[in-house]
Structures are given as C-alpha cells and as structure tokens.
Amino acid sequence: MGTDRRLLMIPGPIEFEPDVLNAMSRKTDSHVSPDFIALFGSCLRRLRDVFRAPDGQPFVVAGSGTTAMEMAAANVVEPGDAVLVVSTGYFGERNARLLARHGAEVEVVEAPPGDVPPLDTVEAALKRRAFKAMFVTHVDTSTGVRADAEALAKLARAHGVLSVFDGVCATAGEVFEQTAWDADIYLTASQKALGVPPGLAIVMARPRALEAWRQRTHPVRSYAVDWEEWLPIMEAYEEGRPSYFATPPVNLIYALDVSLRYILEEGMEAVWARHARVARAFQAAWRALGLRMLPVRPEIAAHTLSAVYYPEGVDASVLARIAEEGVIVAGGLHPQLKAQYFRVGHMGRVRPADVLATVGAIERAFRAVGADVPLGAGVQAAQIALAEELQ
Ligand code: PMP
Fold first, then answer.
1. What are phi and psi of 17, to 5 degrees?
2. Domain total in the chain
3. Are residues 359 and 224 in the same domain?
4. Which pLDDT tens digit goes with each residue over 175-207?
5. Distance 121 CA to ligand 1 centre (A)
6. Where are the alpha helices (DSSP H) in 163-249?
7. What is the pTM of this model?
8. Is 137's C-beta closer than 6 angstroms to any atom of ligand 1?
C-alpha cells in the first residue's frame, strides 16, 4: 500500500502539514529534559496568543476534546451548582450530560437543529435563576452552527456568570478574543484548526475561572484533570523547572510547536480571514449546486465546516462514492437529522486546490448515484469566489 493521497476533509482530524507530522517522528525526549521543558513552556506561552488571552492560564494534557470539556466542568462546577447550557446540537447535549455527571443542576436552552437560541431567551434564563456558569459550544460540529460567542460572553459577564466555550471545532478557525470578550474558559483539542494530530486537550482558564476553582468547597471529582495537580505542572513548564504529575504526550508537543509556529507566523487575523474565505467558497459551491445548508441563516454558518443536506434521491451511501473520487467527507451527526446531511471540514491550512478537489469529487459522486446536480457548477462558483477574494 502506498501513501493514501485521498484528501481528508472531515471536521477533524484534518489534513496535517508534513512538517507537523515529521516533528512527531523525532526521538522522544524525557518529559523533564531541559530542551523539552523549554519547548513545552514556549508552546504554553504561544497558546495565549492564539486564544487572545494574555491573562489566561493554559493547560495542555493528553486527551481529546472531551477531556478538555471534562477538565472545565470538573474544576468549575460543584455538586448542586446551577449551570446553563446553550445547546446548538450534539456537543451541547454532551456538555449537559457531562455537567450532570459532576453534580450540576443543568438547565438547557436550545434551538431547532440549524439554529441558535435567541440571545433574549438566554438572557431570560440568566435572569430567572442564579447560575454559576454558562457552557456554550462555539461551533457545534453536528450542525455547522456558530454561536455568537462575543455576545454570549458579555451577557454572562453582565449577569455575573462564568462563561465556558467549547472551541473544539472553532479555536484558530473562528474569531475569538478571550480576554477582550471576557470569556472565562475557552477549550479545544489538537486535531482540528490547531492542526496537530489527535491527543491534546487544551484549556485556557482566565482569573475568574481559577478563582471559582480556588473557592470550591468540594474536591474536584476527576483526579486526572484536577487543576490542583496540573496548575503547578503548567507553571513549572513555563518557569523552566522539571515537574511531573502525568506524562505529557511529548511527541505531540513537538508537533504543536511546529503548528503554532505556522499559525502565529501567519497571524491570527490572517488565519481567521483565510478560514472565512474558504468557507465562502464552499458556501458558493453549495448554492450553485442547489444544496441547502443546515444553518438556517448564513451569518450563523461556521467557517470551519459545512453541514449540507443531500439532494433529492441521495443518501449516506454516497459518502463511499465521494471517497472513491478521492476525498473523504463525513456523514451527519445530529441525532434527529443524521441520515439527511453530510459534513465537510474546512479547517487548518486548506488550500484553494483542496476546495476545488472536494467540490469536484462531491459533484461527480452525486452524478454517479443519479442526482440531478449541474456538473461543474459548484466548482465554478467556488473558483469564482476564490478568485474574487484574491483581487
Ligand atoms: N466539542 C466539539 C464541538 C467537537 O466537535 C468535538 C469533536 N468532534 C468534541 C467536543 C469532542 O472532542 P473529541 O472527539 O476530541 O473528544
């Protein structure tokens, strides 16, 4: 078997840069060697630039996005705390389940799939009850919907409620100004717009979140993600001292170092703008093909993925055909609708050529299974969108 040259265009894991992958094949250092300590410390500092959180405390541990969600919930929430979950799909539901497991009294505000709960509804909930925290999914990967993180963070602050944002499908792909917006926790994982293979759970906690943790009266219910254990370790790495609680995924940190260099050399504004540009090209293609997106309004459609209904007469069996045409995309995930739509991830260093290849493969596959789509119309629309943006 040779190298698989099919493009991986799912909403994570994404296509990783060869340099990032190569970094992982280095000999594994001791996790307390001076070189590794310096490298890890530098990654932690640079994450503050990616999250726009100069006053944030980064935590980077082995795990996935769910681990990061667990770290936030476990450390912030105590049994009996009232917590508001703003749900826009599958991962909002996950937040609710996870918080309940940590003893929270969870209230959920949600919208029909493809929409976001109106800010008024969220505000009414915040007025009704004294919540300790509000958990929001920045981009719900099941619907491709982006919540208005800035407005929600400010609303939470105005009501004296901690705000926690799940940025697993958003961080480094969607604008997020953690400190300027006064969001207390922004969490993510490595395998999406951060461009590092799966295995890193990343949480950025600002002072109010840490203060809420310090004021706890119950121990954190999860030993493996307890800030009591991790805070001294993260501080030690930044201060250049050896320390140990649980072995860090050394080779993934090498990869993170390379990927952060790419992201910060390009600059956050440029990275965000590039994601928006790629998203607009995909959205132009869907329109030209007569395909409807799950997000009910263009302004709430994520820049990091597209969730698109199948055309008449097409079902999830077309995914295998799209893969045969050279591109791997994902099926639906929202429990109510999952058979009716597919998802295309467009995070990380997606090239214009990747956009055209993806739309082209989808067009050919739809045609092959008998759908009435205008062959070439999506590619042309994407091409025009990409070219216009270059002018
Ligand atoms: N939140 C969101 C928004 C996600 O997209 C995902 C993963 N698709 C997760 C949480 C969970 O992350 P993981 O699969 O890495 O545990």
1. -65, 140
2. 2
3. no
4. 999 999 999 999 999 999 999 999 999 999 999
5. 25
6. 178-181, 207-214, 227-239
7. 0.98
8. yes
